[in-house]
Design goal:
- The complex is a heterodimer.
- Chain A is α/β, with parallel strands linked by helices.
- Chain A has helices spanning 47-53, 60-65, 86-103, 120-135, 146-153, 192-206, 214-224, 250-258, 261-274, 280-284, 299-308, 324-335, 338-343; strands at 14-19, 24-29, 34-38, 41-44, 58-59, 70-73, 112-118, 138-145, 158-165, 170-176, 185-188, 235-240, 243-248, 287-290, 315-317.
- Chain A folds into three domains: 10-154 and 323-343, Nucleotidyltransferase, domain 5 (2-Layer Sandwich), CATH 3.30.420; 158-190 and 259-317, ATPase, nucleotide binding domain (Nucleotidyltransferase, domain 5, 2-Layer Sandwich); 192-258, ATPase, nucleotide binding domain (Nucleotidyltransferase, domain 5), CATH 3.30.420.
- In chain A, the strands form four sheets. Chain A has a five-stranded mixed beta sheet with strand order 3-2-1-7-8.
- In chain B, strand 1 (151-156), helix 6 and strand 2 (195-198) form a beta-alpha-beta unit.
- The chains are: A alpha/beta, B alpha/beta.
Chain lengths: 344, 388
Amino acid sequence: MTKKSGEKTVEERMIVGIDLGTSRSAISASNGKKKWVDSYVGWPKDFIARKVVGKPILFGREALEHRLSLDLYRPLKNGVIKEGTARDEEAVKELIHHLITLVQTKGEAEKVRAVVGVPAESFKVNKVAIKKAVADFAESLLVVSEPFAVAYGVNALDNAMVIDIGAGTVDFCIMHGTVPSEDDQRTVLTAGDYIDQQLFNFLEERYPHSDFNMNMIRRFKEEFSFIGEPERAIKVDIPVDGRPTKHDITEEMRRACESILPAIVESTLELIAKFDPEYQDIIRQNIILAGGGSQIRGLDEYLEGVLKEYGPAKVQVVDDPLYSGCDGALALAQDMPEDYWTEV
Amino acid sequence: MITPNPDTTRLKSAILRGVYDENLRMNNAAPEPRKVKKGPGVRLLSIMAMLVLVVGGAAVLSRYISSGHSPGNGSSTPVAKVQALEPLPITTVEMRVPVPVPTPTSHDSFILQAPMAATAPVREDRLLDYSLILNNNQVSLSSIFGLGVHTIVIDPGHGGIDPGAVGVMGTKEKDVVLDIARRLRDRLLASGRYNVILTREDDSSMTLAERVDKVNASHADLFISLHVNALPQKRANVIETFYYGPPSDEETLQIAEQENRGSGITASEFDSMIRKIGNTFKEQESANLASSIQHSLFTNVKKYDKDTADAGIKIAPFVVLLGVDAPSVLVEISCISKKQEELKLNLPAYREEITSFLAEGTTRYLATKNLHIVQGEENDQKVRRKNG
């Protein structure tokens, strides 16, 4: 790689791929480090809270644990930063800074090159805001949509479809050898958070005297979510009048998880049907599920079953849903020609 | 996991070029929408947007006028509601520390976002249906469907770094309306019939978008936004109540611009919100609530202050009223630019009185609503008895 006098070499710079998610954000760096954090940012409400938490700003799980003392932000709630909400923009900025510091070791370059993957909806409306948020920490940066970053990372570059099931949104993206346009992408809002809400409602209805909260519901979902037939009955401990009591939540879990299926099926079929008829069969056999929602047991088989009614179909799940987005973004960053970085 | 395409290198090269191009475009086209000055082009777009609003709301207006109300005094006196230019310390309502009155700033948020609506086609047949429903003064949708009210959300305007209007003695709109909102909540809660929520419980900043989100998330059945007027060029204590619709005059449009500033509503959100104009129920009930509150507030305040002016019920495009699903009104409860009024607003007893007038107007509206429901049930029972 040629370089001008005084310039840092590519090797001296750290390159990072960032997955800025609604629920979790992850970073993958060229130094081999990978980290993730829940997408929460909190500032102490007042000086007393500042003294209690001992830090000027908290992130992720730590922020959640101290939520009563904090002004807590989940900046990409519903997949977008609300325009004009300065605090949310600030939270995005701090979150990205935090992620970068997590993978930086002392002595490494302070400035980095970054490719940031964001929810597709946010990419449409917030790309400039996100660029501004990262500008202070990155020497150069590129913003891409999250499902596209996943597609790039798994080499699904042509005649493939990525379905990225996150907390706030399910993002669909058809790859056909170019950067996907808005027409190649869809976003639906019935995603992981919707499952949580549904499960909460169903359990509240069935067990009105049991004490549970959203965090417990999320934990149950992450451990037991399924579609179709259960492997075994799902029984969890939920307190009733302070006493831990076993509750069977099998049926409620199934109903909650299946509640997101109609929108996913409809959008998948609609996007494929819009594609060149000659290639629709190939796309149907190149469908990749990503994001936390891809871990719902039985989802890939279910979707494959539905698509097979239209012809041969194959649905695969990414190996590492937590890092597939940032790994893809990192791969893209590392492949990006030097000239492009310089101009960007 | 996916079998690499033999042309992967070529594909990647094209894709990387695409990513680069897209980001370059992004860099070169990074407008700062909120800092754009209103030039002739923006004015033209504003006019187009207002035309759409006027067409969409024509039916509302026609019903409104036909019911005998005045759409406002139509005065073109410029609005002088002001906003502080920098964050101010949290104060109590009783605080009378004089602060310099900031100069009015330019207004941009509503006008700049409104043009998005101009692209939406307006179907004439739908407008006709809409107008037929709305022109029927004998029918209230709430009585047709027997709808009740459970949750009331009260919105103390401004807050945090945004003081709203500031009187010459330093009294801030945000403090006055927060205190009155708390009092109104307590009064309505005391009836034991309603769940009452405030959009902000303390002196915190909230964008209009956050307020709208909170109101809709709480499944509000009724929404009352409280504000205080600042009209230095008027000697009277001007009281007025708004509900959503196209502006009834230039002055109203300027007030809407003031109150919509920094709404935090994106263009796409605005587009989806504008579709809610067709919500006939909301408009009917908003008009009734506005009428009841305005009547109660004005007639009672007038007893104490002969210089009180009834600016009436106005239809105006306040973003916060449009975004909220429930019937909604925005009440300008007083006029802080009038020195005597500012002095009175600093007295808890006067704020309590204003609260009682607001509560009276609200409960009268709610009672009428219940009457409609009872009448509907009685009629229904009569019909059943008749049918055996």
